Amino acid sequence: MAGPKLTKAAIIESLHEKHGLNRADIHQIIDEFFEEVKDGLKNDQVIELRGFGTFEVRTRKGREKARNPKTGAIVAVETHGVAIFRPGKELKDFVWELRDNKPVNEND
């Protein structure tokens, strides 16, 4: 299972401590970066961040019969887009090494 969350606020604070930049400026840059990614996905572009991964939108076909997991009711689901992230080789290798060094928790 995943560990504690790393929030946008924590990232902003970390960048502020490392580089001494204004928190408001860091926040604005991060927000603008996310807007660029969303705009690219909206325009059917593949967002490739070398060494990290790739974001893209794929179409998931609709279905006449799907089940609402909360209520169990049968519902129709329209065709819709889903955001997909594929990690790059460097990120895959980095995470692989992390798992090798952590003890396996038998409760997971």
Q: Can I get a quick summary?
A:
This protein has about 110 residues and is α+β, with helices and mostly antiparallel strands. Helix content is about 40%, strand content about 25%.
Write a structural description:
Pfam families: Bac_DNA_binding. This protein has helices spanning about 10-20, 25-40, 90-100, and strands at about 45-50, 55-60, 65, 75, 80-85. The longest helix has 20 residues, at about 25-40. The chain has 2 domains: about 5-45, no CATH class; about 45-105, HU Protein, Chain A. Helix 1 (about 10-20) packs across helix 2 (about 25-40). The protein is extended, with a radius of gyration of 19 Å. The model has no long low-confidence stretch (mean pLDDT about 90). It is built from 3 helices and 5 strands. It is α+β, with helices and mostly antiparallel strands and about 110 residues long.
What descriptors fit this protein?
108 residues, alpha+beta, HU Protein, Chain A, 2 domains, 3-stranded antiparallel beta sheet, two-stranded antiparallel ribbon, 3 helices, 5 strands, IHF-like_DNA-bd_dom_sf
Quote the average pLDDT: 91
Number of strand elements: 5
User: Helix and strand succession?
Assistant: HHEEEEEH
| Rg calc | 19 Å
Spans of at least 5 consecutive residues whose pLDDT stays below 50 are none
Gap from first CA to last CA = 6 Å
The CATH topology of the largest domain is HU Protein, Chain A
Biggest β-sheet, characterized? 3 strands, antiparallel
Number of separate structural domains? 2
Main sheet strand line-up? 1-2-5
Number of helix segments? 3
CATH class of the largest domain: Few Secondary Structures
CATH architecture of the largest domain: Irregular
CATH superfamily of the largest domain: IHF-like DNA-binding proteins
| Share in helix | 40-55%
Binned strand content: 25-35%
Class by SSE composition: alpha+beta
The general outline is extended
Function: Histone-like DNA-binding protein which is capable of wrapping DNA to stabilize it, and thus to prevent its denaturation under extreme environmental conditions.
GO molecular function, one term: DNA binding
Keywords: DNA-binding
Organism: Sphaerochaeta globosa (strain ATCC BAA-1886 / DSM 22777 / Buddy) (Spirochaeta sp. (strain Buddy))
